[in-house]
Sequence to fold (146 residues):
Amino acid sequence: MPQAWRLGTPVGELNLGLKLSTAFERPAHASWRTVETAALALATLSASDTWTWHANLGTARERTSDTTAALLNLALVWAPRDDAQLFVETQANNRRETFGGTVNSAGGRWWLVKDRFGVDLTGSKEVGADSGTVWTVGFGWYGLSW
Fold:
């Protein structure tokens, strides 16, 4: 994000950003089409070297149902060591019937290569859903530049 979008506050550094996204699909025997578009305002508050808060607020539009939803995502990250971090997160919207219910997650990341390549373990559960916790293991490659 641009340096101008970084602000010093009494409780830590506040970084602001913007995320625009679109998803496409190509059904069999058809051309590519837009499935969903979204725009989010991003805010990250680094309260210390070990604690970080993230908040994303925005909107998404699902093409098939022509439904638009307000989105709110909140996360808290604790990095007790340089090569590890733990987090809790909630992702909510106001159009559950189209975008699904609120999802709460907790997990951790272990950096195999600091700030570049990590392995994640996450447990997530949709609030009010009968299904159990969904566990995922993933690899993240970060720091890609143009």
In short: The two ends are 14 Å apart (CA to CA). The longest helix spans residues 96-99. The helical segments are 96-99.
